[in-house]
Amino acid sequence: xLLLVLPAPARAVTAQPRVAPEFNGSVYAIARLGGxxxxxxSFTSVTAxxxxxxxxRLAALDARTGAILSWAPAADRTVRALAVAGSSVYxxxxxxxxxxxxxxxxxxxxxxxxxxxxxKHAVSGAPYALAAAGGRLYAAGSxxxxxxxxxxxxxxxxxxxxxxxxxxxxxxxxxxSLAVAGSRVYLGGTFHQVNGVRGTLRIxxxxxxxxxxxxxxxxxxxxxxxxxxxxxxxxxxxTGGQGGRALAWTSGGGLRWQRLFDGDAVAVAxxxxxxxxxxxxxxxxxxxxNGVRGTCTGGSVPRVKLAAIDASGRLTSWAPxxxxxxxxxxxxPVGSDLAAGGDFTSVGGRPRKRFALF
Length: 358
Description:
Elements: E1 22-23, E2 27-33, E3 36-41, E4 45-48, E5 51-54, E6 58-62, E7 79-85, E8 88-93, E9 97-98, E10 101-102, E11 106-110, E12 123-133, E13 136-146, E14 149-150, E15 154-158, E16 175-181, E17 184-189, E18 203-207, E19 225-231, E20 234-239, E21 245-249, E22 255-260, E23 265-271, E24 274-279, E25 283-285, E26 300-302, E27 306-309, E28 328-334, E29 337-342, E30 346-347, E31 350-351, E32 355-357
Antiparallel strand pairs: 1-4, 2-3, 3-6, 4-5, 7-8, 8-11, 9-10, 12-13, 13-14, 13-15, 16-17, 17-18, 19-20, 20-21, 21-22, 23-24, 24-27, 25-26, 28-29, 29-32, 30-31
């Protein structure tokens, strides 16, 4: 069946990115708190307005102007995930120290000063995704224990006490993405089962309080789920595989629409009723048919590393055209704007090193 390419009635953001700071290494995570935009990755410096600032894998920008803020905690290795709650910024990744303090892949930072908080846990592996909701910090990734207690790639912590929480669903392989909505925590990754429950291949929903699998959500995903978003209209995911996909499900797991690309889809964000997708792809397929290495076989249009999809599953005309092999790793709403991070160095032919604001 041919999927027509029509513009959506309205676009939440423009295709031409604003002037923004440039990073000298990959951007993996973006989170907003108040007027500040927090960025994590593998970078060691940020350049803005002709000046370069040392920033060891963590930085903060003014969400309105893009100006570099003085917030500058220093992580000794890659930061892969960020979440914000109250006056704190939580970071997860591969690091062992932050600003000279021993922190095993997980840290709490003061959102104003960048000071390292007392929150301290031993994580046997790496967190890939964080989400804060309902008084808990949820962590997902590839780890087997926290503080010596068995945890199957998922864990939670009390935001009030900093303690490891009793929430402990068990995924039998890595969890790459989290989305919290209402009483559910949605999970996506490479796992085959959660809590030993069949029908939870690569994507599942669990109770935000007990961790039990919510059998009222039973979608299917044909490949690794790299990113998730959820809102009142449903659940949205992006996958890899032989050509990446963007998919939308109802709250019951029924498929609403899907789009196919010629490369992995890695990041997804919802803004203004539009689903934004980022990844490694160069083209969006016009049908759900592809061939060797994901090549579209039923026609395609250019959508280099970034695309947008309307409420009916149609591609919009939004096509900023980022470059690079890896392309986009992270997307995040910033008020009425959209932030993108990754490994690109230009967008629409203009220099935008690893970070862009639309």
